[in-house]
Amino acid sequence: MNDPAAEMGVPRTSWVTTVLPPVVALSVILALWEAYVRVRDVKGYLLPPPSAVFRALWDEPGRYASAAATSLTAALGGLVLASAIAFGLAVLAAHSKVLERAIYPPALLVKVTPIVALYPLLAIWFGFGIGPKVAIAALITFFPMLVNAIVGLRSVDPQALDAMRVLAASRWEVFRRLRFPSSLPYVFAALRISVPLSLVGAVVAEFLSGSSGMGQLILIANGAFDTPALFGAVFVLATLGVSLTALVGYVEGHVLDWHVSTGA
Amino acid sequence: MTSTSPPPAVAARGVTHRYPGADGRTLLALDGVDLDVGAGEFVSIVGPSGCGKSTLLRLVAGLLASQVGGIEVLGGAPAEAQRAHALGLVAQDPGLLPWRDVAANVRLPLDVMGAHDPERVRALLDQVGIAEFAGYRPGALSGGMRQRVALARALVHRPRLLLMDEPFGALDELSREAMRIELLRIWEQERIAVLFVTHSVAEAVLLSDRVVVMSGRPGRVRAVIDIPLPRPRGEAQESSPAFVAAAAAVRAALRAEDVEGAA
What we know:
- The structure holds 2 protein chains of 2 kinds.
- Chain A has helices spanning 4-7, 15-18, 20-40, 50-59, 61-95, 97-112, 119-126, 131-154, 158-165, 171-209, 213-223, 227-255.
- Chain A is an all-alpha fold.
- Chain A has a domain at 76-259: MetI-like fold, CATH 1.10.3720.
- In chain A, helix 6 packs across helix 8 (131-154).
- Chain B is an alpha/beta fold.
- Chain B has helices spanning 53-61, 78-83, 102-113, 118-127, 143-155, 173-190, 201-207, 241-262, and strands at residues 10-20, 26-37, 42-46, 68-73, 87-90, 161-165, 193-198, 210-214, 221-226.
- In chain B, strand 8 (210-214) and strand 9 (221-226) form a beta hairpin.
- In chain B, helix 3 packs parallel to helix 5 and helix 7 packs across helix 8 (241-262).
- Chain B starts with 9 loop residues before the first strand and ends with a helix.
- The chains are: A mainly alpha, B alpha/beta.
- Chains A and B meet through helix 9 and helix 10 of A and helix 2, strand 5, helix 3 and helix 5 of B.
């Protein structure tokens, strides 16, 4: 098909209008930051200039990369585990009001409990390795997926459902051809919420255990008054969060190309 | 007629239906309704809003569980007709799957049945005039086009009874008229029984062999009016004396109901 926007003389969206503005804005912020630190001669342990932060990253890339990989593994492990269980429970809840009523209170309990408070318990159960980190990331991402998936699985077009019911379509047929695809916009909305949460969960668990990952790296940098390394760690975590969210958005754009929310 | 004549498409006797209402009372939607649709017959139901005509159609479709009275569809219970894949349904809202393209939406009943008939899908796309949009998603189509897709979907598995619940109610007047003619043409080819619910007297008269006029709450059958217009029919007939007389008879039956309702 022809591009109607181009035909009407409207400039098409390209990297000039999408990528460039945030890049320019970030560069300006970094430049102002660098200039402020240099002009006012701010002490490095209070606020290091961006150049010092990037030098810290540049000098020890392996240290940040391996810590990031450790945190990322725990975060994604928890996210995948929680999403799978939550979606499974949502399928049950979407088919039965009784099951939904049974599932909600315990799920709500998980949601309102400060998950961090469970860490000592989780450490006793799962040791000090990746186990409790995955558990924290899972607990923190569980509820958004459960609620969104239940709503999504119920959000079927009633006329489409009728059209299948007059054919005596089985529950499985209705699920795979109607309920599951209908739930996907809600599942992706949940993932957009859960992905940053899973990183928070993993890093908080690492703060508490101090055994490995970005959380431990931050603790060590903090103890050594190594402020550039602290900023470096924050920068790495922010990059992880942005990349994962962008990845979810990319996959969503391809899977949900039929959905209005993904239109231009 | 052969010795084994096919069973009537619909034979309903004394159908009464209540909905649960506020403060424990019930709302009587249908009260002792009889309905007959012969094999291959086109029957419309007209009546004021809330007369239970959609309820009646949903009972015939097996989408609502029957409470009082007997409903036979194609010689058995509605659920049996469903299992035999003998029913097709078109509602006011097309209810298409937005992630499937037009051809895949039309194919849906075959997919559900585990059947495969690309020839039939193509033929129907042609028949309803949407062959060139086969690869489009519903989101890119107009309301009239979507309703054509819904019609093709309802016919693709060769049902013996087509149920239509105000199928053109959401369309603009021009699309509506085009769809009536389209439906007449398709019905001439498919020759299946149709139960058609509508607000429009002109639509009911133009399309039907018989028009069932229902009264307002609770829904009762007020009159059944034969439409003796010759087939095949077309727009030209809308100005014929026979058409005008039939439409007047239907309108009179609808109005008579007001007097009765007041009594």
